[in-house]
Amino acid sequence: MENLALIESFSEFKDDKLIDRVTLMAILEDVFRNALKKKFGSDDNFDIIINPDKGDLEIWRNRVVVADGDVEDPNQEISLTEARRIEPDFEVGEDVSEEVKLIDLGRRAILALRQNLISKIHEHDNTTVYKKFKELIGDIYTAEVHHVRHKAVILIDDEGNEIILPKDKQIPSDFFRKGDNVRGVIESVELKGNKPMIILSRTAPSFLEKLFEQEIPEVFDGLITVKKVVRIPGEKAKVAVDSYDDRIDPVGACVGMKGSRIHGIVRELGNENIDVINYTNNTQLFISRALSPARVTSVTLNEENKHAEVILKPEEVSKAIGKSGFNIRLAGQLTGYEIDVFREGVEEDVELAEFTDEIDQWVIDEFKKIGLDTAKSILDREVSDLVKLTDLEEETILDVVRILKEEFED
């Protein structure tokens, strides 16, 4: 079997791997040089000539002619008698180039060559895929559901690459079937045993930011800037936007007439409630806007502790806190401030921390999770609402209410 036929048998699978012939030839040379080192001890005196257009490869071994009986290194030297069998006019000291046929390496070596070549091509493919997706981190990517597992959905893209969408990167309302197209952002890419592990996320704030870029032309063109995104996936999100052009209303442009522009984004995120907010460097104003839809009366800042005390009318407090405390939690994440809300006109109040002798700390922490950290903030709420908003039993809440009422009666 000639070299050309052998190489064709080695490279018969290249089309499936989408590897170009020039790269294949470079890998072939590397593989053959390793084989030569194993057989002859060194490949330094071998020339490998590759013709990518023809798909041919020649191997030539260069040796020095020495007198008969003086051969010390058969790989580097050739006896005069043996050299003259190649060409009768060779003399001692001259260089001899002799072509090495692949078949001369032996059947076992050829099988090892093929296996090594397959391994090298897989390694090349994996490196190429890894580099490609490393550059796509943070970008939106679409792939098809191949298999739904308990802890993850396995996706396959148009090039056959496997992408993983873990359960904790899915929106709670997500439901996928085999063949569905799924969008998300490439969150991370790692090499696991030379195989790239590509992680897709639908819960990352960057997914929402990239959806704004895709769906809203002014954001794509840079006329509107998305300053920050915070999310509780599938429930609520807040997006701060800004524009350097005073003629553009960034919130209006993002939302569109009757929510027309943002509707597609909301649907993609499983009806996640999205508040779009005008960004400002005025921290007090930004906090007021972040607590939307509540209308804030006043904001007092403690810059050192990144703490804000917000005064609202009693009927606005529940709006500021929001369902399960989501609104106030996201407002804090968006602005970077810990926010406490107080009712307008309520002068006398007591921090819940003052009741640790009578109320367990874990119970106090449950109320704090929904933005209730003073006695009156709890007493102003219906017990039925407190049962819905917290993980506390009604009996526990009634006990807390009784303790707090006794404080004010005294």
From TrEMBL:
**A UniProt-annotated Pfam family:** NusA_N
What family is this protein classified in? Belongs to the NusA family.
A GO cellular component annotated for this chain's UniProt record is: cytosol
Which GO biological process annotations does it have?
A: DNA-templated transcription termination; transcription antitermination
Stretches assigned to the Transcription factor NusA first KH domain? 202-279
Q: Where do the Transcription factor NusA N-terminal domain residues begin and end?
A: 6-125
Q: What is the lineage of its organism?
A: Bacteria, Pseudomonadati, Bacteroidota, Flavobacteriia, Flavobacteriales
Which terms are listed as keywords in the entry? Cytoplasm, RNA-binding, Transcription, Transcription antitermination, Transcription regulation, Transcription termination
Entry-linked NCBIfam families? NusA
Give the protein's function: Participates in both transcription termination and antitermination.
Ranges where the NusA-like second KH domain occurs: 284-344
Subcellular location(s) of the protein: Cytoplasm
Q: Which gene encodes it?
A: nusA
**InterPro entries linked:** KH_dom-like_a/b (IPR015946), KH_NusA_2nd (IPR058582), KH_sf_prok-type (IPR009019), NA-bd_OB-fold (IPR012340), NusA_N_sf (IPR036555), TF_NusA (IPR010213), TF_NusA_bacterial (IPR030842), TF_NusA_KH_1st (IPR025249)
Kindly state the subunit structure of this protein: Monomer. Binds directly to the core enzyme of the DNA-dependent RNA polymerase and to nascent RNA.
PANTHER family named in the record: TRANSCRIPTION TERMINATION FACTOR NUSA, TRANSCRIPTION TERMINATION_ANTITERMINATION PROTEIN NUSA
Stated name of the protein: Transcription termination/antitermination protein NusA
GO MF annotation terms: DNA-binding transcription factor activity; RNA binding
What SUPFAM superfamilies does this protein's entry cite?
Answer: Nucleic acid-binding proteins, Prokaryotic type KH domain (KH-domain type II), Transcription factor NusA, N-terminal domain
